[in-house]
Amino acid sequence: MLTVSGVHTFYGAIEALKGVDLEVSAGEIVTLIGANGAGKSTLLMTICGNPPARAGRVIFEGEDITRLPTFEIVRRGIAQSPEGRRIFPRMTVLENLQMGSISAKPGSFNTELERVFHLFPRLKERIDQRAGTMSGGEQQMLAIGRALMSQPRLLLLDEPSLGLAPLVVRQIFQVIKDINREQKMTVFMVEQNAFHALKLAHRGYVMVTGKITMSGTGAELLANEEVRAAYLEGGH
Amino acid sequence: MTAISESAAGRALPWPSMLRESGLAAFVALLLTVPLVGFRTVDRPTGLGISTRFDEVLAAAALVFIGRLGLCLVNEGRALLVMVLSILALAVSAFVGFPTEALKVIAMGGAFVISLRAAMKINGDAAITLAAVYVALFLGPWLQLGGGVTLWLVAKSVIAAAALAVAVWRGLHAWRKHGAPVSLADRDKAMDRIAVKVQQASRFLGPVGIAFALIFPFLPIADRVSIDIGILLLTYIMLGWGLNIVVGLAGLLDLGYVAFYAVGAYSYALLATYFGWGFWICLPLAGVLAALSGVLLGFPVLRLRGDYFAIVTLGFGEIIRVILINWYQFTGGPNGISGIPRPSFFGLAEFNRNPTGGLPSFHEMFGLEFSSLHRIIFLYYLILALALVVNLFTLRVRKLPMGRAWEALREDDIACSSLGINRTNMKLGAFAIAAMFGGFAGSFFATRQGFISPESFTFIESAIILAIVVLGGMGSQVGVVVATFIVIGLPEMFRELEQYRMVAFGMGMVLIMLWRPRGLLAHRDPTIRLQGYGGGGTPAAGTAAAGGEAIAGGRAK
């Protein structure tokens, strides 16, 4: 579904991605783990074309989207829940969700809204509340819900567990699993919380300073000595 | 009330630290006033000379010292004493002669603020009482009973009477109950509540205000001067609403809005004087030209963000002005354009006594006595209609995808692009539409004045319009109206202070920014509510992101 091949991305003169190859197939949950500053978020941003890759190609459903502007990429069925959630704080929950459906097919709003409320009943309770006054977990739910409103076929999640209490993290990951299973949604997720992410994901990649160093099924990586030593010891 | 000061009176005052703090404040005041006030250039027969006025510098520093000492005393629990003293000081300085009016303004303003601060320390009712008394004293008709009844006098008297009633009612409270002192946070919260109430009341206050604006020219209190002021206020309200689209909704800080005003004004003036076209043909053309200039500016600029964006718009405003000054053959340069035709009555009649253009005259057409007021009233309705169009547009567009996208851009423009919003087009749209409204206002300005020159389009105009939007509370339509009355109306009110009215005006601005840092009416109303879900009633009133869960309360179904 999504193929990233030989992607190099620069911030000015700094090479953040040094030839990344990876693949996400339809119906999968794929996770990318790595330390701070490894380039995980940059990869997600590059898939969305902001900044675009300087070399290499990003193919989505057979189409080269490397050079497309971000809004065109989103219209082709990729939705992103960006790092740090980035909900609209002064707008209500409903307005936030409506912003998510701005590039969706017209007329889809009500059914998508029902679906999001089914996944996150909490959002339905908070429908008229200003998003900025909600807790971190609720804001994360809103960020994912907002991304789903555009009826994507590929959902990109950037650190959905960032700054959340362990209990809330478990809730969020459960919902990601549900989205994948019930809606057959393909999910590509960047995470620092390696343990939870690998347990959830079908497959995983490990990124170190702009390069993919390892890949395998979630279970394989969880069992891998190096991964354990680098990302799991003392963690989760 | 007395309980607080008695309990504190037992403690000794920390004089050394209080004196040190006051001295420091006075020192800072000295540093600031020496270069600004201490020296002035004077014309001498031999050329420019410098005269000093250090006596005024010292007086200002002394005032600051006393004021700071008063604040220290308030913090040490001597609120009642300071309140009484500062009220006395206010009263005395109102009648005593000062070496200059500026010192008088500083003394009175300082005493005003300190007495309010002291009253807050006593309790909330005392503070409200005092504030209401000040409003009543300031607006009361005491000074002008000799003159005729003007709209201004009526409005002032009504407000003063209301303030007096509040003062009596709250004053009784303050005497009976020994309420707790009010903290700054309490004050801000109370003001937030008031702002939310006002904004909610705008649903019926709006129509009432519009109805009043509609019948205003026919009220007996409306004379030529008050209608002229009405036109001035409406022009700024329209410009404020226009700029509100860019600054308030889309969150783009535009410091050069006056450029579009100028493009509109010159478009009309040039089209009308070169081709002899009428106002009603030129108005849409001026709007289109202004919108085009907005797009022209927008293309290179919209990739910039924040401060950089603001600086470039500032430059654009200046570029337009400099072009107008220097393109002498086309724009008349600094001499401007005069003899700009007045608008006709929708192309059917003219407002002159003896029309020359082949059209009948207005008063004959309607069988009225000729009056020069007809044209002014017509201009009044013209700008009222234009302003209402802008307002209606903004109210509608907030409920459409485009307006929502603008608001989302203001909130977080990175999130917007990840939602598939074409940021460039959206920003260009906001820019072009606001520019178009600025252009409309500009051609109205040209036709009203009959004469325009680059001097009318300096940066200070942009700053005033921006001040209206920011003071009103970004994105608030009612806020723009309230702020226009303050920003344009206050300098009119302070006319008795003559050249120092700008000092008083500046002080007023500082106070508003201290008390309402996010604007007078910063509350944002949601644009959509779904029937059948938890909502439909009042909006959740959490204005600040304060901890989340606790505020949320039970909004479940």
Helicity level of chain A: 25-40%
- Quick one: overall form of chain A? globular
Number of helices of chain B: 22
Query: What summary fits the major beta sheet of chain A?
Result: 6 strands, mixed
User: What spatial order of strands do you see in the largest sheet of chain B?
Assistant: 1-2
Kindly give the count of domains of chain A.
2
Short description:
Chain A is α/β, with parallel strands linked by helices. In chain A, 38% of the residues lie in helices and 27% in strands.
Protein described:
- Chain B: This is High-affinity branched-chain amino acid ABC transporter permease LivM.
- Chain B: It holds the Pfam family DUF3382.
- The complex is a heterodimer of chains A (236) and B (557).
- Chain A has 236 residues and is α/β, with parallel strands linked by helices.
- Chain A contains ten helices and ten strands.
- Chain A is 38% helix and 27% strand.
- In chain A, the strands form two sheets. Chain A has a six-stranded mixed sheet, with helices on both faces. A four-stranded antiparallel sheet of chain A has the order 2-1-4-5, covered by helices on one side.
- In chain A, helix 3 runs parallel beside helix 6.
- Chain A is globular and about 45 Å long.
- The two termini of chain A are 30 Å apart.
- The longest helix of chain B is centred in the middle third of the chain and has 32 residues.
- A two-stranded antiparallel ribbon of chain B has the order 1-2. A two-stranded antiparallel sheet of chain B has the order 3-4.
- In chain B, a hairpin with a 2-residue loop joins strand 1 and strand 2.
- Chain B is mostly helical and 557 residues long.
- Chain B has two domains: 190 residues, no CATH class; 326 residues, no CATH class.
